[in-house]
């Protein structure tokens, strides 16, 4: 009936149909089917001539059905296991599998006194591919990156998809130099790949090694993540790592990382909008909390350690100032819905500074610099001197800068017009006493048309 093939050597013409065992003279083969899918063959041979009876064939078919069910269950379980540990899009391991592998490797390395390395990788300009070419092209980019990593990493390495366009590589028994060499090669292979080059895709890499950069998996991930942000802040297509060999270098590295976190956060906010904020903010918060917990060590005094922590806000201000100068070019007219969205920037700006306790006063200025003296501003409709003094000062300098600067939607006005506008809005939008002092001071200048933005730092009109 097509589902069974039987053999019995009865003529020379059939001699070519030899069974598997040399002394067999009869055989029967039954397909092992499950839902029309062939899983294998149940094959039985006999060393004596025999005609298989219908009862025997029926028994064998029943056995084949049982085998088919068992095989199907085993294969389904195997497939489910593979799907649970394999990213369906890229073919590399899942984030969950990576975390389990990292924990196991950390335990083994701790017991054996050996090292291992992590390489965290984030694609540069991937959002542009999704936005401009579409998500199907974005998926092709991710698939290609997965292929490059799987092809060029060692069999002992664990390659996993860590997030949307982030990948991570766990490298057992690997030191800093070998990890850096592999990351550098991967960076070159990604940037040189034809498909990725056509989409202007490169990658930023961060490296962390055990036990050099941390004593726990969480610390290693944090160092690799922070190092990756340094690469991203440098413009991407780079490999970075922490320099923890010297306490002074470690302090500088932490300041650089904080600056990188802020820089990348702000750039992503302006290119992707508020939806990117929470993820980046959590990374920033965790890192700054780890800095705040730093205790004096390696012979450092408490005063020196505090001085190092106090230096961090200066890196923050330097970063925000430099970025603010570039943000002006992005100003544009807003419709009512966009205006409501834009007004949320004061809360985002204040939240960025949340973890930085030395900047608590500045945080309040950022949060309230769009409050109006008469209580009609935002976000909290504060009135008069309930508005922080710094915020009242910033509001006036900000307005002067906005009026006297070119925008994509308006031409700059003369300084005398800006001062007159400030006076007109005194005690309504602005604190009248501060306006009077500001106007008197500016009119006393030989040339009052000055670049306020260059001297006041990160103050913007929107």
Write the layout of secondary structure elements.
Elements: E1 5-8, E2 26-34, E3 37-46, H1 54-85, H2 95-112, E4 116-124, H3 126-133, H4 135-152, E5 158-161, E6 166-172, H5 176-192, H6 194-198, E7 202-210, H7 217-233, E8 239-241, H8 247-272, H9 277-292, H10 302-327, H11 336-342, H12 345-352, H13 360-368, H14 389-404, H15 415-424, H16 432-443, H17 452-456
What features would you describe in this structure?
- The protein is of the alpha+beta class.
- It contains 17 helices and 8 strands.
- It has a 5-stranded mixed β-sheet, sandwiched between helices.
- 32% of the residues are buried.
Oligomeric category = single chain
Query: How many beta-strand elements?
Result: 8
Relative helix content: 40-55%
How much beta, percentage-wise?
A: 5-15%
End-to-end C-alpha gap: 80 Å
For the largest beta-sheet, the strand count, sense and barrel status come to: 5 strands, mixed
Unreliable residue stretches: 295-311, 450-462
Query: Outline, from the CA principal axes?
Result: elongated
What's the order of the H and E elements?
Answer: EEEHHEHHEEHHEHEHHHHHHHHHH
Category by helix and strand content: alpha+beta
Rg result: 34 Å
Determine the number of helices (DSSP H or I, runs of at least 4 residues): 17
Strand order of the largest sheet: 5-6-4-7-8
């Amino acid at each position: 009936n097509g589902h069974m093939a039987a053999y019995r050597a009865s003529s020379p013409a059939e001699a070519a149909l030899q069974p598997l065992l040399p002394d067999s003279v009869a055989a029967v083969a039954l397909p092992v089917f499950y839902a029309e899918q062939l899983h294998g063959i149940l094959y039985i041979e006999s060393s004596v001539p025999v005609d298989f009876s219908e009862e025997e064939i029926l028994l064998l078919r029943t056995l084949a059905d049982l085998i088919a069910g068992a095989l199907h269950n085993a294969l389904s379980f195997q497939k489910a296991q593979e799907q649970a540990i394999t990213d369906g899009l890229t073919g590399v391991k899942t984030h969950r599998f990576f975390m389990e592998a990292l924990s196991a490797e950390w335990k083994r390395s701790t017991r054996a006194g050996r090292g291992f390395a992590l390489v965290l990788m984030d694609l540069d300009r991937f959002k542009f591919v999704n936005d401009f070419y579409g998500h199907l092209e974005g998926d092709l980019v991710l698939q290609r990156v997965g292929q490059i990593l799987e092809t060029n990493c060692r069999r002992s390495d664990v390659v996993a998809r860590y997030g949307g366009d982030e990948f991570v590589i766990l490298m057992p028994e690997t030191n800093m130099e070998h990890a850096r060499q592999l990351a550098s090669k991967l960076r070159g292979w990604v940037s040189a790949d034809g498909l990725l080059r056509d989409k202007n895709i490169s990658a930023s890499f961060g490296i962390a090694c055990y036990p050099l950069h941390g004593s726990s998996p969480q610390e290693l991930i944090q160092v690799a993540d922070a190092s990756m942000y340094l690469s991203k802040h440098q413009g991407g297509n780079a490999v970075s790592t922490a320099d923890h060999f010297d306490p002074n270098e470690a302090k500088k590295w932490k300041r650089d990382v904080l600056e990188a976190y802020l820089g990348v956060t702000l750039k992503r906010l302006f290119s992707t909008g508020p939806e990117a904020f929470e993820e980046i903010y959590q990374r920033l918060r965790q890192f700054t909390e780890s800095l705040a917990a730093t205790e004096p060590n390696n012979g450092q005094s408490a005063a020196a350690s505090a001085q190092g922590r106090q230096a961090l806000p200066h890196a923050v201000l330097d970063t925000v100032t430099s970025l603010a100068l570039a943000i002006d070019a992005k100003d544009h007219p807003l419709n009512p819905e966009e205006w409501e969205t834009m007004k949320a920037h004061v809360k985002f700006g204040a939240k960025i500074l949340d973890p930085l306790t030395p900047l608590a006063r500045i945080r309040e200025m950022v949060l309230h610099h769009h409050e109006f003296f008469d209580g009609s501003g935002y976000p909290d409709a504060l009135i008069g001197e309930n508005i922080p003094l710094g915020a009242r000062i910033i509001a006036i300098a900000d307005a002067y800068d906005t009026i006297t600067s070119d925008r994509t939607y308006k031409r700059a006005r003369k300084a005398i017009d800006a001062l007159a506008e400030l006076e007109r809005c005194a005690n309504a939008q602005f604190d009248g006493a501060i306006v009077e002092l500001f106007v008197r001071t500016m009119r006393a200048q030989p040339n009052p048309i000055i670049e306020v933005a260059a001297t006041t730092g990160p103050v913007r009109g929107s």
